[in-house]
Design goal:
Layout lengths: L11 H9 L6 E4 L6 H8 L3 E5 L3 H12 L2 H16 L7 H9 L5 H17 L3 H16 L40 E3 L3 H7 L4 E4 L8 H4 L1 H8 L5 E2 L4 E2 L12 H14 L4 E7 L6 H8 L4 E10 L2 H5 L16 E10 L1
Helix pairs in contact: 1-2, 3-7, 3-10, 4-7, 5-6, 6-7, 8-11
């Protein structure tokens, strides 16, 4: 899966073991699904997952890893991915924007990304199959990018992986859950809380000012394929400035989280939250206690690599100081 700030890669086993150890949990609603790493792991353990994220690229990841089933799509996806992987490059807007005006990919890889994406668009494939193809391309591009893991900036010198040739792989599709087909939605979290019900709602909300859309704007452009107006050295989509979320606002965060917690349609909640968030441990426990008994599990983890190496200006000069290199991640299980 793609490199992702806030990814629960290390925490996934604890999350999955906790959820699958609960009696009566068959359907899990993931309201902030991101890469769908958690949803994919839950599906692998036989649970039905209803994933949601308001960013298009995340909804596509959910459609691939949660909604698309191995038995239905693996053979056709494998055939098409092999054909797409054989295409020569064709440079255009994407290559000019993200390989020349900015330096996220080597131009030869950018041209191949562009040719493959145009071919996917021309297929007009069913949504689940298209999602599998797009995720294959997104992950291939992620393996040859030149960043520290976010797309707010690119490295001054090409990363070693950027010199490797782009290569598509078939994503790890899973069989359908015995409890029913998975789903992927592209809704605001509060709308999703109102519409999606399950035995447990999993919440992993953003908890600082950095928008995931700004951090991963290239993936949003890659899946939308809309050649948006861009700005700045990183050539971000202009709608990064206007597409906001209450969860990225310190003044609005508490009320937004309270609304989702109150309206979540499940007898159990599991909330993943960092000590870097905009609400403290005791305040979060108090909020969650309005829904039932709260049990807390703590884990200590290193911060993402960009935070550990420090802050640099466009000339490559270090301008910031690393304050800390580890975080505490907490899982809050709420049972009524």
């Amino acid at each position: 899966m793609i490199k992702y700030l806030g990814s629960k890669r290390v925490l996934v086993p604890a999350i999955v073991d906790l959820i699958t150890g609960l009696d009566g949990v068959r359907t899990v609603v993931d309201l902030f699904s991101g890469t769908s790493r958690v949803g994919h792991a839950l599906k692998a353990r036989g649970l039905r997952v209803r994933a949601n994220d308001h960013n298009r690229y995340a909804a596509v990841l959910g459609r691939c890893y949660v909604q698309a089933d191995r038995g239905r799509w693996l053979d056709e996806a494998g055939r098409l991915i092999a054909e797409l992987d054989a295409l020569p490059g064709r440079a255009g807007w994407f290559t000019e924007t993200f390989c020349v005006r900015s330096r996220f990919f080597r131009p030869e890889n950018g041209a191949r990304i562009e040719a493959i994406r145009e071919a996917i668009a021309a297929l007009a494939a069913p949504p689940e199959l298209e999602a599998v193809l797009l995720v294959s391309l997104m992950e291939a591009a992620d393996r040859v990018d030149s960043t520290t893991g976010v797309q707010m900036a690119y490295l001054k010198q090409w990363a070693p992986r950027a010199w490797k040739p782009l290569q598509l792989r078939v994503p790890e599709l899973l069989p359908q859950s015995p409890w029913g087909p998975g789903e992927a939605w592209e809704l605001d979290a509060l709308d999703a809380a109102d519409r999606l019900d399950g035995d447990l709602v999993y919440l992993d909300p953003p908890y600082n000012q950095h928008k995931y859309l700004g951090n991963y704007h290239i993936w949003e452009t890659l899946v939308r394929w809309d050649q948006p107006e861009v700005y700045g050295t990183a050539c971000k989509r202009v709608d990064v400035r206007s597409r906001g979320s209450a969860f990225n606002s310190r003044p609005a965060f508490h009320d937004a989280l309270r609304a989702v917690v109150t309206r979540a349609r499940a007898p159990r909640l599991l909330v993943s939250f960092s000590n870097e968030g905009w609400i403290g441990h005791e305040a979060l426990e108090d909020l969650l206690a309005t829904r039932g008994r709260v049990r807390v599990v703590e884990r200590d983890f290193p911060r993402y690599v960009g935070a550990r190496i420090g802050i640099y200006n466009p000339r490559g000069e270090k301008v910031g100081r690393v304050s800390h290199v580890r975080n505490t991640e907490r899982l809050y299980l709420v049972e009524g």
